[in-house]
Amino acid sequence: MSRIELAHGAGGTAMGRLIKETIISSLKRRNVQNGIGLDELDDGGSIPLGDTDVVISTDGHTVDPIFFPGGDLGRLSISGTVNDIAVMGARPIAIACALIIEEGFLINDLNRILKSMNDTSEEAGVSIISGDTKVMPHGHIDKMVTATTGVGIVEHGKIILDTGIKPGNKIIITGTVGDHGIALLAAREGISFETELKSDVAPIWNIIDKVLKIGGVTAMKDPTRGGLASALNDFAKKSNTTIYINEEDLPIRGEVVAASEMLGIDPLEVTCEGKAIIAIDHSRAEEALEAIRKTRYGENASIIGEVKNDKPNLVIMNTTVGGKRIIETPYGEPIPRVC
Prior knowledge:
CATH topology of the largest domain: Phosphoribosyl-aminoimidazole Synthetase, Chain A, domain 2
Order of helices and strands: HEEEEHEHEEEHHEHEHEHEEE
CATH superfamily of the largest domain: PurM-like C-terminal domain
Oligomer: single chain
Number of domains: 2
Number of strands: 14
CATH architecture of the largest domain: Alpha-Beta Complex
Strand content: 25-35%
CATH class of the largest domain: Alpha Beta
Shape: globular
Helix content: 25-40%
Mean pLDDT: 93
Radius of gyration: 19 Å
Largest sheet: 7 strands, mixed
């Protein structure tokens, strides 16, 4: 009898099959008033309400450890949900949050997480308007997990879908790749560097808002589970296009490269929690890049590639040694419980 594996929740091909073949196929009512629903497999769904589309996304957070360099469970819970709303082109406005806590959990640690949630909500400009709290017996859950549902609004018909990329688009990454996953793994395994590697976890609506005002955006995605590799393959397969990226243009910190090589991990498959991949008309790409680099979290943004249609459904990297490498969708996130 088949059983659930960790890989089924890790953002790669295993999770994709589970969602399509088991979860979605079991559910009959999958959208509201012809809005975006489960079948689109985007970062959220939508409810059309007159001149406005309400965008809704929900996310569970099971990160281990719950306090890590650069963030914690609270900051992750708000940022991850805000970013899912933002990359659909909607302005995040509200969040509902469920807290599931292990018996014996320290109240001081709960207060730290709540303060972090509050501070991140203030930064993102969203209100926490509803929630639920449950306590599980000791040993029945690992410390604490959260579930957050975000709500955003966008003008009707202006939702950005991850199916929208077109040949000729440029691909922008808003900052360095792999920071979050490697920072967590380093903390777990006691790996140290000359400079502390921190998670990139952050809400990025400010970046998205500036780019949307420039125009020309055709698709966006935040490369969380499965990292850049999974997100780019989603783009290519959903739009039947080819994405070419240039290895020399990928912004990856030296510490991330070193840790990845040490542990046999591809940094392109590692979770990011404060970045977006943006497909944009080539005529707007440089202007958008300049605007992103002026924001708080965008100084390392880079144009990493372009979209063609010569080899549909593939992501191909032009390597620094002059060759080409096909970037495949990972089976699962190589580092479990990073979000």
